[in-house]
Structures are given as structure tokens and as C-alpha cells.
Amino acid sequence: MNRILLFILFSTITNFIQAQKIENDTNSLNIIIDKNVLNAEDENENEIIKLWSNYLNSGEYKNPTSIYWDRSEYPIPDYFLWPVNIKNIKSRTPKVQCTVIGIYPVENNHYALKTSLTSIGAKGEIVLEAILSVFAKKINEKYVLVNSSQYHKGLWEKKQVGQINYYVHPNHKFDKQEADKMNAFNEKMAKLFNIPAISFDYFVSNYSREIVKLWGYDYMPKIYIPGQTGGVADISNGLVYAGNNSEYYPHELVHLYTNEVYPDGYHFWLNEGFATYLAGSGGYDLDWHIEKLKAYIIENPDFEISFKTLKGYIPNGLHSTEFRYVIGGLICKKVYESNGMKALFDGLKNVRTDEELYQFIEEKLNVKQADFSEYIKRIIK
């Protein structure tokens, strides 16, 4: 899953000193209101800011009975906050500075609330980690938080194709042919996993940065990198976010199925590899990515492949092939060729740790851990 995470920058620490302080003790998150938020003390705005502050300081995350969030649309509305490790944000080192930088009314009787997360870097510089975008609305005379996806469902055009509910960015032209293709893949996955076809929401835009903003981040690292296609599956709420200018994003749908059938977790390499094996990644099939890995290994024959240390994109200037996706996909391909789909299902069900994945590879491919790196290099030549 291409988790494209994303930013803007405050220039001086003066803003922190001049801002209005909400909370600042050793047991709570340091939350302040920027001096330019002139409406922070207005009745509705003040209530919403306190609600947000109470949620952040609660330490709550992914609570299916949350009192802070509207759960009428999605059971886990704060799932999108995993990139900023919201559950542990109070105890992080270095300490996180949370600043409310704006609150204002928007459409459909909602309010938008903007919050920056910053910290001090190793050289004393201010590091902007994220700008969060949440919404709020009044239900039964009381404000509750609303995640960005739910809010935008009421604004973006909706198209239904089979079990898929498409929500289309205003700048995107809906392609029914691609949607039919995605619906066919959904039915194919249902047959493969032997369960009814999954019904899910699919948000589509032309670029990944648009999806990241929809997701609830006005800024996060890598939002402006080249190669602006990507997406993510929200497995807790059954959502697909596709910033690839297409109604067809099978990679993320595979994740919804693996989570539906094997909800207790699986190894990242195997999970992403399985999705890449079945559905490609970034618009390219597994064989395309294998060719990129092959070219890199030819130029870097001493390159070491390790589950513990290897991550990121192949440094070939394309920003398109993630090491773990392509190598994980290659593992899945070889396991399927020698042992069939049931062996892959067993791996998804049972493999969680690096040690278990090495053992799985030894059992299915007769390759020991010490020989794994050379094995991968050998089979792609």
C-alpha cells in the first residue's frame, strides 16, 4: 500500500511564545492556539477546540465506542491518524507541539479545524510533521468530530458500480469502463477468497496529494515528491483512496480482502507482496517491478536484502518500486508456483514476525535465512 504521507513550515519559534496556551503539563499534550485564530473564543469555535483538545489528551485511538467522533458513517473514524502515532503523541520524544491554526464554518453546517504538529529537530530546528484537518458538526445539541472523508462524501459526486461506491474529486472525470473493470476484480477476489463481494467506498482523484488532503492531511512528509500517484486502503472502515487518476486500483482492494479474511495481522512484506503479486503496484504489474529490481542488483551486486533494515524505493529516479513490495511479491510468486494459493493463504494467516517469515520461506521454498539474499539475486537474473 503506497502510504503517501505529507506539509508547510512555520518559520520562527515566536509564534509558539505569543500563542494562547490550552494545556501544558507533563501529563498532557502541549496544545496552543495561534494568535491569528481570532475567533477561538467564540461560542461554537471554543466548544469544538475543547472537544478536539480533550480527544487528543484522552490517549484514545480506534475506540469503536468513542464519544468524541461521529461514528454513523465509519466505525473507526480516527483511523486516518495512524501516520502521526496519535495514541502515543503525548509521550513522544522529542515532545510534540500541537497548534490550532484555524477554525471556520464550511458547508453542510460543519466547521473545519486545522492543527499543526511540530517538534524540535536534532539541530534545534522546528520540524513540521503534519497539518491535520478535522471537521465538527452538532448532533443532539452537542458537537462531535467528523473525519475529512465523511465530510467530503457530502460534497463529491457519487457513482455506484456493483458493490463499489465511488466518490469523485471535482477535478476528476469519472471513467465508467475503469469502474466496471474494478467491479469485475472485486468479484474475482470474492471468488478467490470464497466470501461475498465486499461493499466499499472508493475515493478517486487525479493525484495522490489530493487524496492525502481528503484523508485529513493538509501537509505531511512526501506530499510534494515526484511520481504523484498512489493510494491507501483504510482496512478498519472498508475504504479505498486512489490518487492514481483511475477508478481501477486493485492493489488496495486486495488489502480489504486479506483484512476481512485474516483480521489478526500478517507480515508487512508478505501482505504487500501478496497484493503486488495479484494486482501490481503503482499501475505496474509485478514483472515490471522485478525488472527494476534486477537492474538495481546488477549495478549493486553486494546489495543486502534484509527484512529488518530494507525499506524505501529503489533509487533509480523513478520513485515507483518499493523494495518490500517487489521482493515480497517475488516471494509470493515463487511460493504459489511451488505450493499453490493455499500456501499463501497459510502465510497470510500465520506469519507475523521476521523469524516466522524466514521459517515460512524455508518450508515452502527450501531457502534458509542465511541464503535468502543470494537466493533473490539468483532467481531474478
CATH architecture of the domain at 14-146: Roll
Annotation, overall tally of beta strands: 12
Multimeric state of these chains? Answer: single chain
Mean pLDDT: 89
In the predicted model, the low-confidence regions spanning at least 5 consecutive residues are 1-25
Give the proportion of residues in helices.
Answer: 25-40%
Strand content: 15-25%
What is the name of the CATH class of the domain at 14-146? Alpha Beta
Largest sheet: 7 strands, mixed
Number of helices: 12
CATH topology of the domain at 14-146: Nuclear Transport Factor 2, Chain: A
Alpha carbon gyration radius: 22 Å
What series of H and E elements makes up the topology?
A: HEEHEEEEHEEHEHEEEHHHHHHH
The shape, in one word, is globular
The assigned structural class equals alpha+beta
State the separation between the terminal residues, measured CA to CA.
26 Å
Organism: Neotamlana sedimentorum
Protein name: Peptidase MA-like domain-containing protein
Walk me through the structure.
- This protein is α+β, with helices and mostly antiparallel strands and 381 residues long.
- Among the domains are: 133 residues, Nuclear Transport Factor 2, Chain: A (Roll); 120 residues, no CATH class.
- 36% of the residues lie in helices and 19% in strands.
- The protein is built from twelve helices and twelve strands.
- The strands form two sheets. Strands 1, 2, 3, 4, 5, 6 and 10 form a seven-stranded mixed sheet that branches. The chain has a five-stranded mixed sheet with strand order 7-8-9-12-11, sandwiched between helices.
- The longest helix has 18 residues.
- The chain is globular.
- The N terminus is likely disordered.
- It comes from Neotamlana sedimentorum.
- This is Peptidase MA-like domain-containing protein.
